[in-house]
Every structure is written in structure tokens, then in C-alpha cells.
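Data card: per-record layout.
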Amino acid sequence: MALFPRTPRATRLPGDVVSRMERFGRFEFDPVGTDIDASDVWGELQAPYLPFAQSDPQGFARALADAVLPAGGFALFGAARTVWNLVGSDFTSPAYDAVRMAALEFFRANGVPSNRLSAADWQFWQQNSAEPWLVGRPRPTPEEVRIPALAPGELRQLARITEASDSNVVYVTAAPEGRFVTVVDAPTSDTDPTRARFEWTSADTLHDLYTRIGEVFQTPVHWVADELRPFIPLPPSRL
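The structure for this 239-residue chain is written out next.
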């Protein structure tokens, strides 16, 4: 039984639409972490649906919903992103909204932090759900954690974002005016691997600075110093 009323145009979807949407969802969520060749994405996972999507947007959304809602997982996100790409960011329908909300529920159930969502998806969640996204542990008090004092001129490593050799690395140091600042060591640009350092954020105390870093990270990155770990509110995502 179809989850949404079908139209004859629903037969335009290929039989392997779920697996294609699953692949596209994984690519959209983490293009670097997948083995999908970016040059193949449009031709294999998007372009075949363009005639159906543009000729009958409502029917296309219903057909995709019928296919991916029972399957779940990354196919939900792939379908939601496909409608967004091929029909338009301002498109809405009960079928599309159901798929989009199911995709977000899938991420939430697997501990994906809100900073992994697009601004549009985050707004959609806030407008359509009264539930909090994820509830992490409370901010530790100064009495609960001990942060070793920084030595004069010390540049202390706090985190390494990924395991890649060119990963961004986060340090903390004391600024001349008495504040504390984070310094990020990173490649100069996507095309220039030469590394450079820049200041990221600052605070009057190390406790406040570590709190800000934890709120931005939300979940642990590849490597986190023990003194920073209590300030990261959520466990690692399962995706």
C-alpha cells in the first residue's frame, strides 16, 4: 500500500531508486568520507530523475516518499536532497516534508550534532518539531574541572580535527592583554597546502574559552586533549 496517493508518473522511478538515494545521501552527508566519485554523482544519481522532477514535482515527491520512507536510513536524506536539488529549495509538499523530517529524525537518532546540518535543515527542524535536537551533558563548573595554567608563551595543543596529515590543529595560548585565545594551524587554502596560523576565538578565562570550543565541536573530533574533553557535551555520532 502506497504511503501517499500514487500517480501514473510514479512508474518513472527506476527499480533501484532506494539504493541510488542511499548512495546519494551518504555522499551529501560526507563527500570526503565516501568512496563515491564526485564526477559520477550528477550523471548517475541526479540527472536521470530530472525530467520526472520538473514535469511533475508533486508526483515525483510522492513517488520518492513511497520508495524511501519504508527503507529509512541514508536513502531518506538522499531523497530529500534530490527534491531540493531538482525541484527547488522553496518547494513544499506533504510527501517531501515527511521525507525531510524522517531524514532529520534518522540523524538525530544516530547522534549527529546540529552543526552537521545545513542552515535550511536546521530551520526546518525548529519550525516543525518541538523536541530538542540532542541533549548533552551540562557545562562543567570551574569547581568540577581543573585546567592547568598556561606557562608564559606556551602554545598548548587542544584538538586535531581529523586523522588526515593536513588536518586543522587547535591550540590555546595567553594573549598579551590577559585574555586567552585559540590558534588554528591549517593549510592556507584548498589550493595552497602551506600551513598558516590564525586566531579563532577568545575569552577572559580558560574555562570560558574551553566552553566555547566544546559548544562549537558538540561531539569529539579526531583527537581531543583530556582537559578539553569534559567541555564537549555530546558523545561521538554513530554515523
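Known properties of this structure: DSSP finds eight helices and five strands in the chain. The two ends are 31 Å apart (CA to CA).

See the next section for split statistics.
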